[in-house]
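Progress note, project year one: complex with magnesium ion.
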Amino acid sequence: MGIQMFSDTKRLLKQLGENELYELAKLKNINIPKEWSKTLIVDLLALNVSKKDIQTITTISLKAKIKPKDAPSVIIIKDLVKEFEDVVAVNGLNLEIRQGELFSLLGPNGAGKTTTINILNGVIKPTKGTAFIEGYDVRKNLKEIKELIGVCPQEAAVFKFLNARENIELFGNLHSVSKKELEERTNNFLELLGLVEVSKRKVKGFSGGMLRKLNLIIALISDPKIAFLDEPTVGMDPRARRATWEFIESLKKQKKTIILTTHYIEEAEVLSDRVGIIDYGKLIELGSPQELMEKHESKNLEEVFLKITGRRILEGI
Ligand SMILES: Nc1ncnc2c1ncn2[C@@H]1O[C@H](COP(=O)(O)OP(=O)(O)O)[C@@H](O)[C@H]1O
Ligand SMILES: [Mg+2]
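Model obtained:
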């Protein structure tokens, strides 16, 4: 058990950059001689830090790169209701999402996140109310909306007998991306997500995490202004998750508006400018992660959710 934990910590430490290793040493008051190699530093830290310390450091360094923005609303959701036969999946949702912000819908399984995204993308029609994307009504102007958005759906939609690169090219061609741009973007995205080596492999052998990454690339291949990412890191190991977070951050730097749904608290905390907490189809809290934690005197968004609902997010419904 002890040895297992030690090698686990070591594995995590190896994934960190030099700056993060030094930050970690500072946190634990460990002096590292300047001439030490990374391997030695990792060995030393592994003896002295916990997974929690590593998490603290990586969260802070990602957060520091994120700056909240104040910008006009590009998505306006008005009194949105979606009823299925025996369940009200979205129950009177009102929400505005600003240009260039990364907005997370956070909530347990069954809260209504995917249903909301599917309405915004025109996959399903609202029962009542509506939403506008750059002024276009999701009930009427889907053609215009499709030009603006990229969607990474919860279920991977790829061709299993093509390889990764062929899948990307196929979707790029469907969106009439020019040959040059398609090649540039494909190479760039494969590199950023660490898929270069597997890009010639048929997708049918891909792991869940690899499929999700491919799906993400396909969603963004048309370089949309607005991206919807539905649970982008489900089924990923910590390393893949981190690569995906950095990829999503790179999208933010390009001033894209990103709507992300997640039931991972840490993901919402690390990436979001603002979070909408959703439960039983209703928005129960809205604000930046920091604001929400301060308001509810909580140390993380899980505690915020717990204080409002008396339940944990991962417990689901
Ligand atoms: N096509 C459907 N038919 C019937 N019920 C559905 C359908 N899609 C979603 N639901 C129900 O609506 C609720 C919200 O689901 P969903 O939006 O998928 O939640 P989330 O994405 O937050 O996990 C759940 O109770 C789910 O079972
Ligand atoms: Mg969902």
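Residues 65-69 have pLDDT under 50 and may be disordered.
The longest strand covers residues 73-84.
No further modelling is planned for this target in the current period.
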